[in-house]
Amino acid sequence: MVRNGGHNLAFHVTPGHNPAIVLDAGGGADSSYWKDIVPVLAKDTGSTIITYDRAGMGASDEVPGPWKVEDAVSDLEAGLTQLGATHDVVLVSHSLAGEIATYFVNKDPQWVAGSVLVDASLPNFYTDSEIAKIEAANNAQMAELQKQPSTKQTRQLLAVAASYGAMHRAYHQVSWPDTVPATVIRSSKTPFDTPDDAQLWRDAEAQFAAAAPNRTVIVADNSSHDIPLDRPDVVLKAIDEMAKQVS
What we know:
The chain is α/β, with parallel strands linked by helices. It has a single domain, classed as Rossmann fold, CATH 3.40.50. It has nine helices and nine strands. The protein has a seven-stranded mixed beta sheet, with helices on both faces. A two-stranded antiparallel sheet has the order 1-2. Helix 2 packs across helix 3 and helix 4 packs antiparallel against helix 5. It is globular, with a radius of gyration of 17 Å. Keywords: Hydrolase. It comes from Amycolatopsis saalfeldensis. This is Pimeloyl-ACP methyl ester carboxylesterase. GO terms for molecular function: hydrolase activity.
């Protein structure tokens, strides 16, 4: 357990050598999302494997008020500092965790040797019109959630929705530092059912990869947005290659 800003966070460690591989799950998921990947990754790479529960998830304390990406970055910093993983890190981020990764590598680029972004949320996706569309959908979903019994998961979803618009208008202006290599894994389906939204998501991934020579996009065929569950082989291979590249 790691203490930061008055709350406790659960970090889970499989000991090994550097580079340490840090796995960060998407929105609504905790460290158990990676339970099938961790033992295979540890065996294949010999690296230290770190997973954790973000505030409000799993065994970590809840934090009242709207969710803030800056707080999530601070929590990750606190955990990695206590674990001594402040250099040669391979950061693996799924979905929402791509936003944490983007802010993290801007603040602490010297900590991260490379990243694998698994169908991750990237800045170019968040145009004003897209944010407005998602906010409208969120409002309907949140109204339904508020009618249901309050649980840790529903409270966390409501916290993220509360700050969605302002947070993503700011995120749209953020860029990934050229010094940190990144592999983007694209799903077949994307998180969206509508063709326009799905294409915008794919375009954001392509634009991200094209912005620097040390970035690439690979496609996980026959996968939903949950690539780590549908195609763990693709995720494991990408992490293994990034770990070898940065060793």
